[in-house]
Amino acid sequence: MRLETLDSALDVAARAADALAAALARRPEAVLLLPAGATPVPFYAEVVRRARAGTLDLSRAHLFQLDELVGVGPRDPRGFQAFFREHLVTPLGLDARFHALDGTAGDPAAEIERHRRALAALGAIDLVLLGLGQNGHVAFNEPGSRLEDTARVVTLGAKTLEGLRLQFAGEPCPTQGITLGLREIAAGKEVVMLVTGKGKQTILARLAHGAASGDVPATLLLTHPGFRLLADRAAAATLAR
After folding, report:
1. What is the pTM of this model?
2. Which of 29, 63, 124, 173 qualifies as a cystine partner to 168, CB 3.0-4.6 A?
């Protein structure tokens, strides 16, 4: 596993932005798969900062949302499309470059298949950026996923639902998601995973020391030749013990 341990979450964000800048330098029309969630928020802030400073240009890139909650609309702040619009798309005026998922589509399977086809039509995927779920999921590829799994509707795992219920307190919590599969993710030329915070110590240790297994889907990416893991010292604190 190519692991780089950095001092802080801000340093992880900067290194991830470096990877993005390098991909764009190689191909300005780069195809990018991007994650939602708390971990990449500093990364998007750094991307916006660099773009406004003129040192990074996303104006020709293709930005693909990795996953979405079924039943959650584009304007719902708890949804992932709204997350991307808040943190990246709207600040940089990238609506025309953003390939979004609609969690309220009448046929979720058709919606994720439409997304998959749009991605496939562009050919090579230049860079995939990922977070790491507490149960080892990447995007919504939950425990039990296989490397050959493609874009699909999924039932969310217990650990994922545990976190979501905090956001949907007092309201029905989504139990399904739509996601690009490990097949699409592993097709990326480069796969960069961001792991930050003390709360990720246990799952990062499982990733670092465990064998490849669908029980921890992220481990299935460890043999990818372009896989790189960026962790802050808080998340990686137990690895040297």
Report:
1. 0.97
2. 173
